[in-house]
Amino acid sequence: MDLTTDPRTNLSPQLYGYASMHDAITRDCARLESTLGHLVPGDPSVGARLVRWFDRFEAVIVHHHGGEDDLVFPLLVERDPSFDPEALTVDHHILDDTMEKLRAGLAALATDANGAARAHSLRAATDLRTLMADHLDREEAAVFPRMLEFVSAEEHAEIELQLRKGLKFSTLTFGLPWILDEADPDIATHIRADLPFPLLVLNTLRWDRSYRRLAAPVRDGSNGRANI
Q1: CB–CB of 191/14 below 8 Å?
Q2: How many Å separate Cα 6 from the centre of its chain?
Q3: Residue 165: its H or E element
Q4: Model pLDDT, residue 45
Q5: Which of 49, 61, 197, 221 could form a disulfide with 228 if both were Cys (CB 3.0 to 4.6 A apart)?
């Protein structure tokens, strides 16, 4: 096992789902920061729309971190006692606290007459983006090589199945189109091929359309072109 090389080099399909989750988190942390940077205070609908989107975004992150803390990390400790997840678990708590601050700022946007809530939200969004980037870099360096060496493809698939079973329906209907949004084409093809056919049909006919409406504030607002 080589922990010194880039864990994304020649990424194994076994880790496509894991990597795509991290990619989507990274993408939307940047989108939210950019959206708040372009935001002009005064529209009372802005806070409500961003909070509705953030509810789902935060939920998928919390579920992902819970799956790591409860399933992935204990398994890796069992297989490789040199793996110490303590710092990564502490990161999860810090990220939770940062998301709480961000949620409070977004909720206050509806009455943000002087721009204070926007400034608070933007600071929290910047903190979330930078903390998340550092966390994910360290996590992938520690976890990805060990997942490939100590966890079989069949075991990895079983972990993903357990995580999927634990999802709230609202998180599932958001999470699938969210992961596929601007995903690497090879990774997206692999994810679609690995999913049950009924989920793909539901995603195509219903979930993707609902997701795009919900995510419009950050998908368009991050470019400064939408009246969000």
Answers
A1: no
A2: 21
A3: helix 153-165
A4: 76
A5: 221
Structure tokens that stand for 172 in this block: 């599932």
> Please, how many CA atoms are within 13 Å of residue 70, restricted to the half-sphere of its CB?
11
Q: What does R_g of the chain's alpha carbons equal in angstroms?
A: 18
Residues 62/166, Cβ–Cβ less than 8 Å: no
What's the pLDDT at 113?
75
- Burial call 209-225: b when 16+ CB within 10 Å, e when fewer: eebeebbebbbbbbeee
Nearest in space to 216 (alpha carbons), one of 203, 199, 228, 225: 228
Which residue reads 């990564």 in tokens? Answer: 88
Residue type, 76: L
- Provide, for the chain, the percentages of residues in helix, strand and coil under a 3-state DSSP scheme, each rounded to the nearest 5: 80, 0, 20
Contact 1, 145 (CB under 8 A): yes
pLDDT digits (tens, 9 = 90+) for 18-68: 999 999 999 999 999 999 998 876 666 778 899 999 999 999 999 999 999
Quote the pTM value.
0.92
pLDDT digits (tens, 9 = 90+) for 63-98: 999 999 999 999 999 999 999 999 999 999 999 999
Residue 87: how many CB atoms within 10 A of its CB?
Answer: 11
Contact call for residues 228 and 215 (beta carbons, < 8 A): no
DSSP assignment, residue 206? I
When pLDDT is cut at 50, 70 and 90, the band that residue 4 belongs to is low
